[in-house]
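Q: Please design a sequence for this.
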């Protein structure tokens, strides 16, 4: 991964040793890493910088991981969250997934496990970005910004697709000022 295109990861944990370990693993894998020691500090970073993936602990003093997950889900929905926790239970895993966590990584974990989860999270993030770009590109280029879901406009889109590959001249008629050009 090149520096300009490196995925940006935020590690949120109130234990500095965990943050440093995660940072070391992720930097070695080619990620650009920011560290926050609290949920509130994480939100401040998220408001200032574009982040692709968030690894967050569940149990922190000022703001727990569940509250941070909820904030991510509503304020930063395109960020891919991963939960890391030393208190892994089936119930907490299910609850975090319901709150929007992409994955759940119980502590202690190996560097290989973290790298694999980060890679999958980055693939998920890329698919989100590609889908958004594709949707925006389709609307703006295929039909010059024409947007609509009604049966009549869908019929027009079908006609455009049918005529577009031909070299035939097409006459578009309509009232003055309706944007026929």
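A: Design:
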């Amino acid at each position: 991964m090149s520096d300009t295109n490196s995925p940006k990861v935020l590690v949120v944990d109130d234990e500095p040793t965990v943050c440093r370990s995660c940072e070391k693993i992720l930097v070695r894998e080619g990620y650009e890493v920011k560290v926050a020691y609290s949920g509130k500090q994480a939100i401040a970073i998220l408001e200032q910088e574009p982040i692709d993936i968030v690894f967050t602990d569940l149990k922190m003093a000022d703001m727990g991981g569940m509250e941070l997950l909820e904030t991510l889900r509503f304020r930063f929905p395109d960020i891919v969250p991963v939960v890391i926790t030393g208190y892994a239970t089936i119930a907490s895993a299910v609850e975090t997934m319901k709150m929007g966590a992409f994955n759940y990584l119980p502590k202690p974990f190996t560097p290989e496990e973290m790298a694999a989860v980060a890679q999958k999270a980055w693939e998920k993030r890329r698919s989100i970005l590609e889908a958004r770009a594709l949707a925006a590109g389709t609307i703006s280029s295929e039909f010059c910004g024409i947007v609509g879901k009604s049966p009549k406009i869908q019929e027009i889109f079908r006609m455009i697709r049918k005529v577009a590959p031909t070299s035939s001249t097409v006459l578009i008629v309509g009232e003055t000022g309706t944007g026929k050009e």
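Q: Thanks. Anything notable?
A: DSSP finds six helices and five strands in the chain. The longest strand covers residues 80-85.
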